[in-house]
Amino acid sequence: MLRQVYDNYTPEDFTVWRLLYERQMLQLPQLASQAYLEGVKAMQFSADKIPNFDEINALLSRTTGWEVTVVAGLIPQKEFFELLANKKFPATTWLRKLEELDYLEEPDMFHDVFGHLPLLTNHDFCNFLQEFSKISLKHIENPAAVKLLGRLYWFTVEFGLIEENGLKIYGAGILSSSGESVFCLGNEPARYPFDAEKIMLTDYYIDHYQDKYFVINSYKQLFDSLGEINRVLEKYAAVETIA
Ligand SMILES: [Fe+2]
Predict the structure, then answer these.
(1) CA-to-CA distance for 212 and 190, rounded, in angstroms?
(2) Which of 66, 88, 174, 183 sits a CA distance of 20 to 30 A from 117?
(3) Which residues, other chains included, contact 132 with Cβ-Cβ below 8 Å and sequence gap of 6+?
């Protein structure tokens, strides 16, 4: 099993964490979902310290019972959803380089930890993530279903917006991106009310900002959409599934 080796972090790693953390925490208090901001507080993240996974897990075990588990990088989808279905969130431990603050080929620890972990203190969000992952596992051998489910994950967990006295951000892909945090709430992109079927039929971009975002009313709405997600799968990807 991989572990976070805290002593391996270099002064550059600490600088990168501090720069990214400070830049986002300057703007996110106005832009991010309350639940996310409360999660950042609960996690005791700070500019001066790269988060320690043992400490995060001690905190999470007292809130939702989730935990963070170390992965080297992107992992196969089956493995990914197996971890999530078991309340384990896979995260990398490496940080991008100083000269690449805004460029990432694949998610680093700032994305995984700063972007994703705070919402793991929210029960409704966690319940959704776990049940969604169980559905994904059921259909993991069905490429058509995996594609539809991947879009749902993308437009919620990674790039979701929420209505909370104005539009706020909860998607980790946005929360860990300085530019997209501002862009997604501006005039340029389209925003639609959350609609599982519409999302599952909508393509997304992996190489630039999204041109559309979907807005939930509450994290409970995500959980309540699981039945609809199953219906959409039956409608568009009705092939063999794993019992
Ligand atoms: Fe992510």
Answers:
(1) 5
(2) 183
(3) 84, 149, 152, 153, 222, 226, 229
What does the pLDDT read at residue 243?
47
Q: How many CB atoms lie within 10 A of CB 10?
A: 9
The tokens for 211 are 């041109």
pLDDT at 143 over 50: yes
**Annotated domain spans of the chain:** 6-236
Burial call 103-127: b when 16+ CB within 10 Å, e when fewer: eeeebbbbbbbbbbbbbbbbebbbb
Which pLDDT band holds residue 63 (cuts at 50, 70, 90)? very high
Instruction: Please give the distance, rounded to the nearest whole angstrom, from the Cα atom of residue 44 to the centre of ligand 1.
Output: 20
> Quick one: average pLDDT of 161-178?
97
Distance 49 CA to ligand 1 centre (A): 21
pLDDT of residue 239: 57
| Predicted TM-score of the model (pTM) | 0.95
Helix/strand/coil for 155: helix
Give 204 Cα–ligand 1 centroid separation in angstroms: 14
Give the pLDDT of residue 228.
98
Architecture per CATH, 6-236:
Orthogonal Bundle (1.10)
> Residue 8 Cα, ligand 1 centroid: separation in angstroms?
23
